[in-house]
Amino acid sequence: MAESFSTLPLRVNPDRMLDSFTQLAFIAATADGGVNRPTFSDGHLAARKWFKEEIEKSGLEFRTDGAGNHSAFLPASVIGSGQQAPLAKTLLLGSHLDSVPNGGRFDGALGVMAALEVLKTVKENRINLKSRTEPSRSVNLEAIDFTDEEGTLVGLLGSAALAGHLSQKDLASPRGGRDQLVEGMARAGLSDASMLSAARPKDSLAGYLELHIEQGKRLERAGIDIGIVSAIVGIWSYRLSFIGRADHAGSTTMDDRLDASLGASAFTLAAREMVMMGFPDCVVNVGKMDFAPGAFNIVPARADLALEFRSPDEDEFNRLDAALLELARKEAGRFGLEMRIEFLGKHSPSMMNETMQTAFATACDDLGLTHVSLSSGAGHDGQSLADLCPVGMIFVPSVDGASHSPREFTKWDDCVNGANVLLQAVLRLAG
Amino acid sequence: MAESFSTLPLRVNPDRMLDSFTQLAFIAATADGGVNRPTFSDGHLAARKWFKEEIEKSGLEFRTDGAGNHSAFLPASVIGSGQQAPLAKTLLLGSHLDSVPNGGRFDGALGVMAALEVLKTVKENRINLKSRTEPSRSVNLEAIDFTDEEGTLVGLLGSAALAGHLSQKDLASPRGGRDQLVEGMARAGLSDASMLSAARPKDSLAGYLELHIEQGKRLERAGIDIGIVSAIVGIWSYRLSFIGRADHAGSTTMDDRLDASLGASAFTLAAREMVMMGFPDCVVNVGKMDFAPGAFNIVPARADLALEFRSPDEDEFNRLDAALLELARKEAGRFGLEMRIEFLGKHSPSMMNETMQTAFATACDDLGLTHVSLSSGAGHDGQSLADLCPVGMIFVPSVDGASHSPREFTKWDDCVNGANVLLQAVLRLAG
Fold first, then answer.
1. Which of A35, A99, A315, B359 could form a disulfide with B425 if both were Cys (CB 3.0 to 4.6 A apart)?
2. How far apart are CA B301 and CA A405, in angstroms?
3. B146 and B293 belong to one structural domain
4. ipTM of the predicted assembly exceeds 0.90
5. pLDDT tens-digit profile of B14-34?
6. Is residue B26 part of a domain?
7. Chain B residues inside the 8 Å CB shell of A378
8. How far is B320 from chain A (nearest CA, A)?
9. Quick check: B159 and B381 in contact, CB under 8 A?
């Protein structure tokens, strides 16, 4: 199809990007079209190894840090005057290669592949990037794969480490369990100490830009090409334990039981009702429920729930938090159960940088793409970095809104659109 | 304390029995006073090994079969004329050494230790056992530990194999999972073929007697020493799967979800209500609930429930079965979920033999112990044997009714009473 506008603005190479994306999608692929790459699983380690080799094949510099973040690095000096650029800041692009268990092949992977493609395009066009606000400074480009975005172990782990937010306490009681964290770090040659060493100086980054799939239906329903993220919702997570008594499930009469399953079930139903009726901007999920001892013929003595809830607003968060914990205690009491409440962590809602949002919007306009401002219901690494440097984020449409599932899909044209907007935003911010 | 009655009737040696019971209770003991001996776990294998050595130390013959049942055997010929006793039948006493996960130290173990003590007492008193109904036949005594009574793998496995009820189908889809069964059998040197070879001829057994803890509160509340079991309830078990859709738990709005946790939770609550209101003689248990994929940030696509229900009456069973499955489908439909229903197995209610009940009752009377007739809400190996030979069973009081729990406790005097009633019933049936 002949294009009616000039060959400018510069675009990425869509075939090269598709080739990389497809190779990556085959690593730890599942039969139903998804991928299974929980952090530091065999599949995830294979994807990391492939990414390192892909970077080296591209003639880009491979870098890693104590948090296991992997990067392609394009120093300003290489494409600039040939001299060292001691004052250079780095403009970071990226996303993550880990997946939820049996997840989709776009979540995270698209953003990393688009970032890498932007670096390849800038390199082959020998574009000299300079800071728009401080023209004496050159700008390095870096395409990063952040460790454990999805939270198999900790959640936003690599970005929190890079931003200097990670604490010994986060590592001591991670939501995936300490044993799993220790084992995972060992598999990747990492440790608590290395994790805590990955923080970067506050003035080293010019900004962070991320392309991601929307994981919702808003763009698809509105028929819009690009979503420019205004804010990322916050996430709070808890482990709630309802505690009753193990009894023989045959010889103990129904009214003599202290059955932990009842409190857990009642809470799960009531929490959904409460959020739908009273907190329309929020969501809640009970993603996991474990009964102990966990046998057919024993009344459950304990039910552990994995609880997560999200809100774009800090005040609403505090109200929802109080309401959910009160509800849990009420449902426990109704069945004679005790409660244990373990707070696992929170991420506050994060505002995206205005300049970044404007750069994305003008990039869309120049590329002839429609765009809309929206908030992100999903958490992303950008929220870790938001007080370290300016952060911007864009979404491309998810077919049927599906995500964290093998059904996850984004049309390839939309993926390429996103990469072109990312490239153009880079040029606008440091062209 | 001086006893006011004659030293007759014969009694077991309570100190010797306590010594054995205590040694056994230390094997795979948990810190809270229970034991953890799921079938063919390290702890269970250690208990089996100890039992074999204890038999050999007692000068009794150790026997085993293709189902891994372990026995102490006291041939009639040894205590009789010294001649072979080709027409001898065997009077089987016993219970099981496996436990539920983190169970108590009395469930099963007491019955095996009491059976062994009865053999030791008969042996040291050189009592010649003969059939009451066919005085030309001698009677062998056997104290058996049945494999996998609790159902870690199959449930009533060893007794079903011995009774010839076990089928290839039972082994192909066991409720604990086929992989776990294969692995467990391998650990004990067993196989499908050996399991199916363990059936005994129908006329080889004179009967089966079992002492067990009540695992309920009826005896304790009534202040009665011995419960004589009239019937054992039947048990049906299913795996119910509620199937929705995996979605991102942040970016998918609450009303766009097909959340499997909701059907599972609603069924768990409603099943209890239904049984309490409409089926007062029955019990139901959801002992396990597994969500898949099982992550904080994914809407559960699937919830698998371990469902078990019990009734003393076959007609009521059929009504309850239909009502529970209809309820599951209704709750699934309410949340837009699909259902998968996997029938895992059933045991019909079993009537205990009248002659055995009478023998127990007169034994109690002669020993000055109070007794009551009751049904067993728990399943027991006797139900496997009920159409192979006459079966009788007695209960001793459980403190606070606790069982399948480390809180399980029976006063030692009650344990000894039970063993004495078992011994006296043996002498009445084959004295």
1. B359
2. 9
3. no
4. no
5. 999 999 999 999 999 999 999
6. yes
7. 248, 250-251, 297
8. 15
9. yes
